[in-house]
Amino acid sequence: MKRLPRTLGTLLVAWLAAELCVWLGTPIPWMLGPLLITALASMAGAPTHSANLLRNMGQWVIGTALGLYFTPQVSALVLAQWWAIVLAVVWALALGAFFGLWLQRRHGAELSHLSPRALLATTYFSGSIGGASEMTMLAERYGARTDLVAAAHSMRLVMVVIAVPFGMQWAQSQWGLTVDASLLPGTRLAQWPGLLWLGLLTALGGWLMLKMGRTNPWFMGPLVASMALTLAGWEWSAVPTALSNAAQLVLGVSLGIRFRREFVKTAPRWLASVAWGSALMMGVSLLFGMALAWGTGLHPATMILGTAPGGITEMAITAKVLQLGVPVVTAFQVCRLVAVLLMVGPLFGWVARRMIKA
After folding, report:
1. Range of 115's domain?
2. What is the pLDDT of residues 302-315, one digit of tens each?
3. Is the pLDDT of residue 228 over 80?
4. Phi, psi of 162 (to 5 degrees)
5. CATH number for the domain including 111?
6. What's the number of domains the chain is made of?
7. To 5 degrees, how large is the angle CA 170–CA 93–CA 100?
8. In sequence order, which residues have a C-beta less than 8 Å from that of residue 287 and are 6 or more positions away?
9. Rounded mean pLDDT of 336-343?
10. Cα–Cα distance measured from residue 212 to residue 210, given in angstroms and rounded to the nearest whole number
């Protein structure tokens, strides 16, 4: 309750920023505006605050909305592209590993106070394309500088969230990008009491994921529950646009508050390297996405979003707002997230044994 005024003040400023972005016609205005204004205010020392409850509710709403796109026809299309998803997973693991090795070569001298294993963990998990909190927790197990790992992921995520939607919007304005209408959700109208039943069952999915200790439970649980309902042919209701916009707002705020005043002072050379590396990762991922589009016959914009080195929620929201193949983007990003979480730890152990011995 002591933080309630700060939370409400942050939400008010974020709402004003979102409305400004709507007026300016920016992409994903309900996430981008709150993210940028909250980040700037936080770095300036303003008393911003994001409630975990609101963030979880935002993930719940977005996960539910994305699951509605997985009709039987769309799911068959996604399954037919299993080989492309495998390639995207391998690409993400390799790209993250090379980025981490580059960071180690560039900053090994200034981080020489760390043990060889801790240095490798710091750079390796900073480069891995996974969730910021999950990569930071993994890095902590190996004695890494967790502040550098968290800063690297925050910098990369914000760069991707800003650059990719603007790039997609520009491409739409130049070439009129559109995606097959069959990739749109089965039901597009919010109706009662279907929305109530949808909310209750997806909330149950989130609660079950939480009890099982799964990663990102309030996104993954509602997503899986909503997907299951849609695949079964139960199209009860769409998620109201206003509710989706509110979810994007609170998620934008939760990203923006990572950038505290201390963030700017956290190894400026490290952040500069992460920025350059992230820009390069976006560039090569763009080429990889276009190559996958050629190989699969799917839309280039969809493949670019599906392989972009950003977060699943942010990339799926971009696809949803710009109508660029939400289910395919979500499937690629979800599979990559799961694979990275399962494999990045064991791969680090394998790399560490060989590099430290050498």
Report:
1. 4-357
2. 888 888 887 776 77
3. yes
4. -80, -45
5. 1.20.1530
6. 1
7. 90
8. none
9. 78
10. 5
